[in-house]
Specification:
196 residues, 4 helices, 33% strand, elongated, alpha+beta
């Protein structure tokens, strides 16, 4: 489920070269410098120096140290970004379940560009259910694109499924009526299938 979604474009000029941005945010970030480049440290990882056209991918709730570098020829840095907070099973941050790639190559960014553009286009048009659905679809496509390049944390997924099982079992014990217990029992069976 998409809980939060924001996209944008930024322009940095020559006086911004070397500008450092430090932050921790509650959403996943995909940021591509298509002119200029980033030097970034995510959490306790070593610094990553990206090439022009590459994007960094940072999980939510992780400290970021971001240095902006302008293109020496054009004397500017141009960036597009997408911020997404997504939850799995409506209860946990998706970033807690996966290890995202550190970066996307320039070639991967050319593929992901359509998700940025779809999201931006839908966000610029008058608000409607259709536009909101198109924005969320673009974000989901970006997440699917990232998930294909990510590693799962099976122990975190299993822990989450166990927590859901316990909650469902408690609810089944507290509820009156056989029909509701059958529904909960069926949900527990589905959860068992999901976990393996």
């Amino acid at each position: 489920k998409i809980e939060f979604l924001e996209t944008g474009d930024l322009l940095f000029s020559e006086q911004d070269d070397g500008y450092v941005h430090r932050k921790t945010v509650p959403f996943l970030i995909v940021a591509q410098a298509y002119e200029g480049h980033y030097e970034i440290t995510v959490g306790s990882r070593k610094e990553l120096i990206l090439s022009e056209g590459e994007a960094f991918v940072a999980p939510s709730n992780t400290f970021l140290h971001i240095r902006h570098r302008i293109n020496p020829v054009t004397r500017r840095m141009r960036v597009r970004f997408m911020h997404i907070r997504a939850t799995a099973w409506n209860c946990t941050d998706l970033c807690d379940l996966i290890e995202l790639p550190e970066k996307l190559s320039a070639a991967e960014c050319r593929t992901a560009l359509r998700f940025f553009r779809s999201c931006r286009k839908a966000g610029m048009e008058p608000a409607s259910l259709l536009r909101e659905t198109e924005k969320n679809a673009a974000a989901m496509n970006m997440l699917a694109f990232l998930l294909k390049r990510s590693k799962e944390h099976p122990q975190n997924t299993e822990r989450l499924l166990q927590e859901i099982r316990v909650l469902l079992q408690k609810e089944a014990m507290q509820l009156q009526g056989q029909e509701r217990r059958v529904q909960i029992h069926l949900l527990l069976q589905v959860m068992s299938c999901l976990s393996g």
